[in-house]
Amino acid sequence: MAGVTRERHETVGERLRRLRGERGLSQRDLAVPGVSYAHISRIERGERVPSIKALRRLARKLGVSAEFLETGADAPADQQLEVRLRDAELALRLSDGGEDAERELRRLAAEAEAAGYVDLAARAAGVLGLAALRRGDHRRAVIVLEPVAAELAPAEHPDFFGVLARSYVGVGRTEDAVALLRHALEEVEREAPENAALAVRYATLLSYALSETGDLAAARELVVHALHRAQETEDRYTRVRTHWSHARLAAVAGDTHTALASLDRAVALLEATEDERQLGRAHLLWAEILTFDGRGDEAVPHLKTAERLLGAAPDAEDLYWLRTEQARAAAQLGRAEKAIRCAREALELIGDTDPAERGAASWALGEALGQSGDLDAAAAALGEAVDLLAGQRLWREAAAAARTLVRALEDAGRGRDAAAAQARLAGELEPHVQASADAAQRLRIPQPSR
User: Fold this and answer.
1) Cα dist. 306→10, 269, 321 in Å?
2) Is the pLDDT of residue 448 over 70?
3) What is the end-to-end Cα distance of the chain in Å, rounded?
4) pLDDT tens digits, one per residue of 338-395
5) Alpha carbon distance 373, 396 (integer Å)
6) More confident residue, 35 or 86
7) 3-state DSSP assignment of residue 214
8) Is 411 exposed, middle or buried (0-12, 13-18, 19+ CB in 10 A)?
């Protein structure tokens, strides 16, 4: 009983000193980044009240919960897991956790699953999947996210479903992305019909996935639906999504004027939010539309703005997109050295995680190498680009890369290879382009994440 009374009336400082002594730790041993031994001494003497962040860091090192360190009583297990999950997610978002934060998330997912906390386990998996996506590792994101998707409600976890859908597209499983988002939209409209913002979010994501399959008619229908539902809400991001999707869909259909007009509206709304990351992505999309239209000189200011807004440590996904578009613009302007440097950096970042991205970067590299006079290397890069883009059914891009390949082979004096490339262009690629007015480039822009 005496022990219980002592614990009940202990101060935080007394409890900290007792736990430290029980573990044989000095104040210097217990010190952690942001909580010095001198600060620990002041807490133990009752001269300082520890912040929540300090409590969590000290509790982690002592092997107890922050709740216990603060009050002497443990929170329920699910609340402890919830706190740990928020801490690990924050560490990842602030880029100060890295591998340690990911290991903690894997432990959390396993502990939550073993304890039967299905929602917490799925949320931990979702954060891990987002971390993988930000590294550009779509395959890993699918591996982490796919097993728990059935356990989550789309109305409660739109970030999770958005990340999984983007990852499906990244690994070439676009039909799975369509099925996932169609199910999510149907469930949201059934379970939360009053939530117009959420319906718009899923509708625009689904339009993105449908346009990847070439079904522009269905994508257009969804965008019209989204525009109608957006009138029911004043949420700024809901309106950004509708203009963004409309811009993307118009660009895919080859209507550059409409695309840029819609994107201009999205940019104006984003400028009012001070959301620099999404605004940077909008300028990247603007540059991509222009470079595909052969207007590299007009794309350059948008690329400079995007690079500034994305900051010194952008996600891998944003960085390789930026470098690819910088390479394309530089190649169009005859700046071969810069184009080669940017394209090679993009390829290194992409690795083998995204065939469509790799195809776009290889195309830019091949164009630049041809300008530098390295025709054999240019032909190799362009050949890889054609194979990758055709493999992803990006027929217009594949055909354009193939035309560049034919010229490079002819310039290199490789007439037989040039004839074979021309035959493939005429027999395989151009018929696909001509067969569908919907065939167009893949715009590599994710939807605004909020």
Assistant:
1) 54, 16, 11
2) no
3) 52
4) 999 999 999 998 888 788 889 999 999 999 999 999 999 999 999 999 999 988 878 8
5) 26
6) 35
7) coil
8) middle
Where would I find the H helices in 293-414?
Answer: 296-310, 316-332, 336-350, 355-372, 375-391, 395-411
Domain boundaries, the chain: 2-75, 307-450
Closest CA to 13 of 24, 32, 27: 27
Could you tell me which residues come within 8 angstroms of residue 329 by beta carbon, excluding any fewer than 6 positions away?
287, 291, 296, 297, 299, 300, 303
DSSP result, 30-52: H-BTTB-HHHHHHHHTTS-PPPH
Quickly count: other Cβ atoms within 10 Å of residue 426's Cβ.
12
CATH code of 307-450, in short, is: 1.25.40.10
d(CA 180, CA 165): 7
Residue type, 12: V
Under DSSP, the state recorded for 414 is: -
CATH of 2-75, one of 1.20.1250.20, 1.10.3720.10, 1.25.40.10, 1.10.260.40: 1.10.260.40
Give the per-residue pLDDT at 445.
43
pLDDT of residue 74: 60
Whole-number Å distance between alpha carbons of 120 and 113 = 8
Backbone angles phi, psi at 32, to 5 degrees: -135, 165
CA pair distance 258, 234, nearest whole angstrom? 24
Taking only the tens place, the pLDDT of each residue in 139-191 is 888 998 898 888 788 888 888 898 899 889 888 898 999 999 999 999 998 88
